Amino acid sequence: MATSKKRKKNLRRRPGAHESGNPQVRHTASPKGRLGPFFKLLGEIAVAAEQAVQSTPNASDRIVRFDIEILMRGANSAKAVRTLLEQGYWEYAVGVTRQLFELLVNMEYLGAMADRREGTLLFARFGMLQMLLAQQRKSTYEQEKGHPVDAQLSAMVDHHLASDFMDFRANTNNGSVKWVSSWCRKTTFDLAAASEDPMRPYQYNILYRVWSEQAHAAPGALIANLFRDADEGWVERTIAENDRSSIDTITFTVMFFLRLWLELPHVQVSPERVAGWLSKLSTMSGGPHLPSRPWTAEEVATQ
């Protein structure tokens, strides 16, 4: 009797033990198993970026630190995409990929400015403005809910918002205080259009229009499953569709992150190494997003 109970307990611990007993339910390999080489590549690139950061000289310099923080945000985005896709959640991963795209087009615009240092300081000042506005909104919320409020902190925030950052004030007809929406007064669409890379507007279209429903959990993200017929082969078709979307997401993520890295002059990476990663991705994906021939360092450097 004891042996029988022990055996049942071990069976309950096995993966899939709580799945339906319906013989039509088939066990399939996880995305991590099917797309393992892609996930390995994402991890390899993220680790390489972290190693580059650790060996970056003059890391205490604020301008250098800016590039480090941008790269680390991008690396963390790549790792987040990997984590979500390994569990099959490509619909959620595309939101992180959009964030990476926004980092990229902002850094491309920053790098094209006549004085990158001046642009970096402008970017940082706008970040400070956003931080103060967030603190002001938090204080307002706490006050409205009857919670304790740090009066000294609130006064300091109000003082800086009233006297500083005048260059970020937007013009209004009634004289009310309104702030511009970005550090460079351009939308993500504008930045994509301003990029020297002719693919940016097309990538914007995919991320912000074709995949917009997924990022916002709009009705369009749900309707396909609502009308999906459970006929013969539907499992295989669904897996194939999800894998293709996952590969597209990985392709965008890798391309955006590597290009972002190249836009950061204080954290070095060799074009040859970037070309090697892109060539590997091109070989694995076999899709229309990358050229069929291997990438070269010259191609990477001129993008």
Q: What are the salient characteristics of this protein?
A:
globular; mainly alpha; 68% helix; 303 residues
Q: Describe it for me?
A:
By secondary structure, the protein is mainly alpha-helical. Helices cover 68% and strands 0% of the residues. It is built from 14 helices and no strands. The longest helix has 29 residues, at 116-144.
Q: Nutshell version of this structure?
A:
This protein has 14 helices and no strands. It has 303 residues and is mostly helical. The termini are far apart.
Set down the secondary structure blueprint.
Layout: H1 2-13, H2 31-34, H3 36-54, H4 62-86, H5 90-112, H6 116-144, H7 151-163, H8 188-194, H9 200-210, H10 212-216, H11 219-226, H12 234-262, H13 271-285, H14 297-302
Helix pairs in contact: 3-4, 3-12, 3-13, 4-5, 4-12, 5-8, 5-9, 5-12, 6-7, 8-9, 12-13
Q: In DSSP terms, counting alpha (H) and pi (I) runs of 4 or more, how many helices?
A: 14
Q: pLDDT average, as an integer?
A: 86
Give the helices and strands as they follow along the chain: HHHHHHHHHHHHHH
SS-based class: mainly alpha
